[in-house]
Specification:
Number of strands: 0
GO biological process, one term: phosphate ion transmembrane transport
Oligomer: single chain
Radius of gyration: 19 Å
Largest sheet: none
GO cellular component, one term: membrane
InterPro entries: Phos_transporter
Strand content: under 5%
Main location: membrane
Protein name: Anion permease
């Protein structure tokens, strides 16, 4: 029976990564598509390839996810916790995707995992210090991304102040190809590792391995799932990110992609999971503020921020209910 439960865990984790691919990767290519620097199909292929490469490059974030919220070796219902967490995270991702809200898959997974652990084992099984470190990274990174986007855009305005806007934007359309690839690569280095970490969490909980090291088959399968999800696209979210916050021109897209990719890649090097959605959105808001504060549609931005704050408690509640249902039926 245990092997079938583990198969279910792997399937759900890869499904989460697949959904993450078309849910979050839409953020990575939204600016380049909206400015027509890249055709949608070309952008998706490039994003899928760079996400795959990024996912295979690092494993530090996976180890943080696998042990930061709770120690899987200490849990009686570790595998069941993972299943309920993934159901909660997937459900919220699909809901927000359907309504075109660029919500965070990272917040969804962290909140769902914490909720499932609390429902199954109690608050004392939460790794308080590790959980707080993850929350700090999730909360601080958007602020840093906003500042990065604002500073990069401000610098570009000074450098190209005397140039024709038409000439500048024509040149930056080519630059956006590079930054879209950089953005997608950084996304893969951080987001794909979350599914890797949750699979390793289940493997340790089931006593099939003792360390948080990520097996090669887990790396390849998670990277492939995210790449395939990316290939599906996420047009509703692309529309929100690329057109509804403010009118993005190529120079703005270049600045936003550069700022957010630097923040995400830095977090990856520090082994910290961050919300690529929050980082990219905040960078776009920073760029828009530097361009012209009044040009930013702050009402749309406000609705996005509300979704950010409610994601962790809602996904925690969904996963808790999921475990209570499992307990009522099987225990």
């Amino acid at each position: 029976m245990e092997i079938y439960v583990l198969i279910a865990v792997v399937f759900l984790a890869l499904a989460f990564d697949f959904i993450n691919g078309f849910h979050d990767t839409a953020n990575a290519i939204a600016t380049s598509v909206s400015t027509r620097a890249l055709k949608p199909r070309v952008a998706i292929v490039l994003a899928a390839l760079m996400n795959f490469l990024g996912a295979l490059t690092f494993t530090g974030v996976a180890k943080t996810i696998g042990s930061g919220v709770a120690n899987p070796a200490d849990l009686q219902f570790g595998v069941e916790v993972v299943i309920c967490a993934l159901i909660g995270a997937i459900a919220w991702n699909l809901i927000t995707w359907w309504f075109g809200i660029p919500s965070s898959s990272s917040h969804a997974l962290i909140g769902a995992l914490a909720g499932a652990v609390i429902a199954a084992e109690g608050f004392d099984k939460i790794n308080a210090s590790g959980f707080m470190d993850i929350l700090k990274a999730l909360l601080i990174s958007p602020i840093i991304a906003f500042v990065a986007g604002f500073l990069i855009m401000s610098l570009l305005k000074v450098i190209f102040a005397r140039k024709s806007p038409h000439t500048v934007n024509k040149g930056f359309r080519f630059g956006q190809i590079a930054t879209a690839m950089f953005q997608s690569f950084s996304h893969g280095t951080n987001d794909a590792q979350k599914a890797m970490g949750i699979i390793v969490f289940a493997l340790v909980a089931a006593e099939l391995q003792q360390t948080m090291d990520v097996p090669l088959w887990v790396k390849i399968s998670a990277a492939t799932a995210m790449a395939l999800g990316t290939a599906m696209g996420g047009w509703k979210i692309i529309k929100t990110m690329g057109t509804k916050i403010f009118k993005i021109e190529p120079i703005n897209g270049f600045a936003a992609d550069t700022g957010s990719a630097i923040v995400i890649l830095t977090a990856t090097f520090l082994h910290l999971p961050v919300s690529t959605t929050h980082v990219i959105t905040s960078s776009i808001l920073g760029v828009g503020s530097a361009k012209r504060f009044a040009a930013v549609k702050w009402g749309v931005a406000g609705r996005i921020v509300v979704a950010w704050f409610i994601t962790i408690p809602i996904t925690a509640l969904i996963s808790m209910v999921c475990f209570w249902i499992y307990k009522a039926i099987f225990l």
